[in-house]
Structure formats: C-alpha cells, structure tokens
Specification:
By secondary structure, this protein is an alpha+beta fold. It has 6 helices and 4 strands; from the N terminus they run ββαββααααα. Strands 2-1-3-4 form a 4-stranded antiparallel sheet. It is rod-shaped. It starts with a strand and ends in an 11-residue tail after the last helix.
Length: about 140
C-alpha cells in the first residue's frame, strides 16, 4: 500500500494500481512525495519502483547548447569593439564583464589617455583569448 502527498496533505493508503492510475491521469507527478512500507523517508515518485515503466519524454528538438546560442553574443562584434574601442573597455561592457570594463575605462580616463595604450593592448589580448561572455555562454 502506498501513501502520497498532495497540497501538503498525506493521502492513502492506496494500492499500486491506483497509484499508476493517478500517474496516468496526471493527478500526481514524478515529483510527488510517496511512501510505502520499507521506505525510510518520503521520496519523490521518480526515485521509487513506481517510476518503472513510465514513458520517457522525447528529447528536446533544441539541444541545450543551441538554446544557449540563442542569447549568445557575436564574437565579431566583441573583437571589433576590442580593436577600435578596447582602450575604453567597451568590448567588456558588451560581453558583461562590467568590473573589467570599468577598470579599463578608469585607467584610460584617469591617465588622460596615456594609460589607454596599456588598456588597448589588454583589449587586443582579450579579443584573441576570450571565447565566452560573463554568463559563460560561448560567442557565436
């Protein structure tokens, strides 16, 4: 006999056939907490013998890599910003590396442009080596 939790209430005892019917009717989900004799604690249904034989959902049409690519920033834009406006850190603002960008901008401004040479070299190195934005999404 099985027990299950729904809306904070513990319901049961019900037999396994009833539990399978509740699953099929979507009255309970694979995340529903269940318990039966022999179990130490309430456990999500998906981690019990009730999960055996449940239909496996088809794979997504879009892999997670391509889903992340939807929001990916353009590598060409990053490189062009680094080459032409890198001394001001604009490329890092674009990629979400705000603290780096602010540092580059301040170095350039506080040294009246003299530090811009160093920040431009820094930007060129980043243009060659950085392959993802601040969220970890690879550039397109």
């Amino acid at each position: 006999m099985w027990y299950y939790e729904q809306n904070g209430n513990r319901i049961g005892p019900v037999d396994e056939a009833t539990m399978r019917s509740l699953i099929a009717n979507r009255s309970i989900s694979i995340d529903t907490l269940v318990w039966t004799n022999g179990m130490a604690n309430w456990t999500p249904l998906q981690q019990t013998q009730l999960a055996a034989g449940l239909p496996v959902p088809p794979p997504s049409l879009h892999s997670s890599a391509s889903a992340n690519n939807i929001n990916a920033k353009e590598r060409v834009a990053y490189v062009l910003l680094a080459v032409f406006l890198g001394n001001l850190g604009i490329h890092n603002f674009y990629a979400g590396y705000t603290s780096r960008a602010v540092t580059q901008l301040l170095i350039c401004l506080l040294t009246c442009g003299i530090g811009g040479i160093a920040t431009w070299i820094w930007a060129i190195i980043e243009a060659v080596t950085v392959e993802q934005d601040a969220k970890g999404v690879r550039f397109k």
